[in-house]
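Quick start: read one record
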Amino acid sequence: MPLVNFSNLDFDQVKTTLKNYLKSNSNFTDYDFEGSNLSTIIDVLAYNTYITSYNANMVANEVFIDSATLRENVVALARNIGYLPKSRKSSTAFVTFFVNTSDLTPKPSTLTIKKGPIASSSGNFGNSSYIFSIAEDITVPVVDNTAEFRNIKINEGSLLTTNFTYSSRNPNQKFILPNIGIDTDLINVSVKTDNSEFAPSTKYSKQDSLFDITKDSNVFFLQESEDEQYEIFFGDNVFGKALEDGNFITANYIVSNGDAANNINQFQFAGRLTYNMGGGEYVVTSGISLLSAGTASSGGATIESVDSIKKYAPRIYASQNRALTANDYESLVPAKIYPDTESISVFGGEELVPPQYGKVFISIKPRFGDFLPNLIKQNIKNKLKKYSVAGIVPEILDLKYLYIEIHSSVYYNTNLAPSAEDVGTIVSSNAQKYADSSELNKYGARFKYSKFLKIIDDSSDAITSNITTVYMRRDLRVALNSFAEYAIGFGNAFHVKRASGYNIKSTSFKINGLSQAVYLSDLPNNDLRTGTLFFFSLPSVNSQTPTIIKRNVGTIDYETGIVIINPVNITDGKQKDGQTIIEISTCPLSNDVIGLQDLYLQLDVTHSTFNMVIDEISSGLDPSASNYIVTSSYDRGNLVRSGGPVGGNIDSGATGTTSNATGTFSGTTMGNTGSTSASTGY
């Protein structure tokens, strides 16, 4: 009897196994399986075995969170370890408007805008109109015939209400909110003793843990159920107050469209204004000003994905609701404290040079914007207190960008390309796609030099090769008109290409006491591991004849990539995003650049150049290579970067221009160009 393979999941393989099994029986030695009715029976058996094996395999996969694919199963497995997936988030905005009450009769002393819809998106926003609501009534006084509603927080979505009546005779009763797209942060639950009009109502608060909860606590809990709906459940008189027979439950919540409603800054009034006077309620429909919004709506997000649940649920369970290790912080902050975290980096103070013991440093890239406002940073620190270990002080660092700039000479065959511009456009576009990829734009990212070279070579069949030089850049944000010391770190070792100095480049800036603009550069020590900094001037940005203005103005460590500028009074510099900065760039020791610790790695295509060079050998123009253009792999350009205050004889700076002998064209521009301060941390 042949050995039966029980692991086959293919129908034909199962059928073949059954045939071989029957053939081993002497009664079927010469039997024609294909030409008999037994073939149909074997097909049925094989099909049944196939279905059973498939189901068994799927069931086995769905009982483990790593291999489960269905959201319901992943959510259920995460629930077993106490993890609640993040819900869809409503986009928020702040609006201000005024109401002129001079024409109202009788005259109101207060005006109330009722909960529910308050505004709608104005104009054509993605061929859709969005409703923004408030969850509670807002009442303001009327002063000099004017009611002022200032900075009203509005949430995108419709305010809905679902009611339940608790019955002790139904032990399996569930309170499931029958809508998809609920923002769980905007759920308000109240409980009354019964459904009568005059029964007092008690507000219940949402909790996600059992800490500090007593038997008298008015709390409710949430869990995700089937089809992305949510179930409300209450305490048991041990952890939280239990419901009593006949209790009437009211749940108000907002159903939103998630991130689809972000970036809206024009609104129309769509609310209901009322006031009470003399026992009657009056509705206000006139005298309402246009709504003004300080900033565009933001914060909307989709429901947490299955992949995200698989990533964070085990890590949150491993942390046991305490922040002890760096992994604990990296799990707790995006999962429970600040859900709008796009990327996070956490490291201990003992890793710094010099070390800062007793501190843990947290750097967060928000999902919307480049930097965390100070208020949000303080809120994160306050929320971390209940998770942090005593004696460990968390510090929220400002986001620090480490930019990668590319200077590439791209050789191409003119016989395979209509023009240099066509080839250059494709190269620039592919470079931008790599810049926007998930390999970059995160903490701990790595710019992969060999992969990038392949991206250039594979951009067009006309490209024969490329010579590419990599630069690193940090933007030092300065404090104008005050003496300050600056330290900025690159997290990567520098390439010391010149023992005579000028290994780093900067944009021009002005210092107190000097009329001309100056630049920053370096002079290595004999060991080529450290060096000193100096200020110098140039008659023009392309000049190779510098004039030293002041020596020993700081230090540089080529191995750690740390630049320290002694106290100096800077009066002017390059302007970027409303900030005064000094761009500092250099060549890395390794072409593979790493975003170390709190450095957020980005490929800056805007400041990269792609020079198209005719490959005269491949094109057949110069088979003997007598006039072949050779491009150096090393930096042999200007001593400085362009850009900065007037007085340094500078121009507007590089803008990602791609050129050749026949013409120039502009490369693609990058959307995110935020600058960072590096006055202390590195």
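Residues 159-255 form one domain.
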